[in-house]
Amino acid sequence: MNPLLSRLQPYPFERLRQLHADVTPNPAYPPISLGIGEPRHATPQLVKAALTDSLSGLASYPGTLGTPQLRQAMSDWLARRYGLKVDPATQILPVNGSREALFSLAQTVLDASQPGATVVCPNPFYQIYEGAALLAGAETWFAPSDPARNFAVDWAGVPEAVWAKTQLVFVCSPGNPTGAVMSLAEWELLFKLSDRYGFVIASDECYSEIYFREEAPLGGLQAAAQLGRHDFKNLISLTSLSKRSNVPGLRSGFVAGDAAIIKSFLLYRTYHGSAMSPIVQAASIAAWRDEQHVAENRELYREKFARVTPLLAPVMDVALPDAGFYLWAGIPEIFKGSDTAFSRELLALYNVVVLPGSYLARDAQGHNPGAGRIRMALVAETAECVEAAERIVQFIQSKVH
């Protein structure tokens, strides 16, 4: 067996299952789960129609590069969304969801033969970043985050000795679980560091289309273009239809950016067996070419957050995020910082599942930045999310009083 597998930690949801294994939920309440970030809004009819209308594609082997029509649809979306000019022939690749691409990109760009090869990750973070780094034979280093800035990453806080060994940096903007969006100034600093030390930046942007401000979140490629980096040197952006179009089971997204990296990534994927099904390609074209369903989806989330956040704010440290569908909330002092105890008691007394924040971070620089917080995924219908929030308020008030 691959000895690197022993370096992997249990996935957060497996840890959550173990945490709740001996908990008996209160049967007086119907179960509500805010634990897993799985979109539950309806899949657009246009996507379903494109799937069923293209079943003849099952008779053909797909190419890893995808059809020109698919890559053009992706390029057109980048132009509409970010005002970018991206070559569909050399700067875009379809992928089977952003998770698969995040993992395989690391296997493509990392050279574990170099002493101390390092991957820098945000903290808290999406655990695929860590797994991808470890299974590529690299070390991980968790960049500090600033609670005063919604846990935005403090790139300047990474020591020079770490940057000197860094080959890959994972960025998540909008962030999971915090919803923080990187500013142009933060991107400029990261680009300068990349130029100085030569590392690749993988920008995970799968939550980019769920936002609550007037201005849409800044993307990595967009930031590069605004700073005159039109070749997207050492930058790969990853995006997905899962959250944007409510099709997590479709497993469809794309990567875009530095043509030299895309060329190597295509070579890796050709051997890796990562070609997208022809019927998924047809459905993806339909999804990327339509914005109406995306705007409608965004409004559903806006309504939920507008109703749920004010309910929780008086009893928890919680605020409307910049983007994404998570609330990243600090628990009251009466729980003594134990997010795991909060999660267990909430399930036992009110039959609501939330994910402990400490499961989404690692102990680094002397502390776990997720400790004392919980992540709530507002993916269910509005009424269910509101009921969950009301139960959480009752739970906290019962402890305080």
Automatic annotation (TrEMBL):
Presence of keyword Transferase: yes
Q: Which Pfam families match?
A: Aminotran_1_2
Q: Give the E.C. number(s).
A: 2.6.1.17
* Matching InterPro entries: Aminotransferase_I/II_large, DapC_beta/gammaproteobac, LL-DAP_aminotransferase, PyrdxlP-dep_Trfase, PyrdxlP-dep_Trfase_major, PyrdxlP-dep_Trfase_small
Indicate the enzyme's highest-level EC class. Answer: transferase
The protein's UniProt keywords, in alphabetical order, are: Aminotransferase, Transferase
The family database entries (NCBIfam families) matched by this protein are listed as: DapC_gpp (TIGR03538)
Q: Can you say what this protein is called?
A: Succinyldiaminopimelate transaminase
